[in-house]
Amino acid sequence: MTLSLDRKAFVDIITDGVGHIGGTMLPPPEGVWGMPPEVLKTLPGYDPDVAKNREEAKKIMEKLGYGPNNHLVTKVSTRNMVDEQSMQADPEKRKKIVWQLERMLAETAIRPVIFYPAGGTCRQPWVKGLTIMVNSIYNGWRFEDVWLDK
User: Fold this and answer.
1) Rg of the Cα trace of the chain?
2) 64 within domain boundaries
3) Distance (Å, rounded) from C-alpha 2 to C-alpha 44?
């Protein structure tokens, strides 16, 4: 499945080309732990040559006996990965561990990531105490410390 995705088409169509292709971790420059493009494209399905990826997927499925007359039935499940990376204090060593995990996830197509949309936040100068998250759009929407200076 991951070999069949055209991630650039998703970015172009859904975000008018304003987005980033990445793996499980948010890609650079916003993502600190994400793989750079030259490493990311070595993962299954991340080579920008979509036609080549799809031919590879078709050959894999045919070799396994699947095709138009024999569909693949799947059951999807997930499990926790390695805690080693969160205990590693050295950022460079931790990044290497994260990239190993990223490769495992991509090779097993556990959670195929299609793309990351770009986003922005703005506020009026009289809004005080608001902390904007820099590495996620899903955290930090707590307003206990926000107040208006007007």
Assistant:
1) 20
2) yes
3) 7
Residue 129 domain-assigned (yes or no): no
pLDDT tens per residue, range 29-73: 888 889 999 999 999 999 999 999 999 999 999 999 999 899 888
Q: Is-contact 42 35, C-beta < 8 A?
A: no
Spatial separation of the C-alpha atoms in residues 74 and 102, rounded to whole Å: 22
Q: Which residue segment(s) compose the domain that 27 sits in?
A: 2-118
Q: What is the DSSP string of 38-84?
A: HHHTTSTT-SS-HHHHHHHHHHHHHHTT-BTTBPPP---------SH
Which are the contacts of 30, defined by CB distance < 8 A and separation ≥ 6?
20, 116, 134, 135
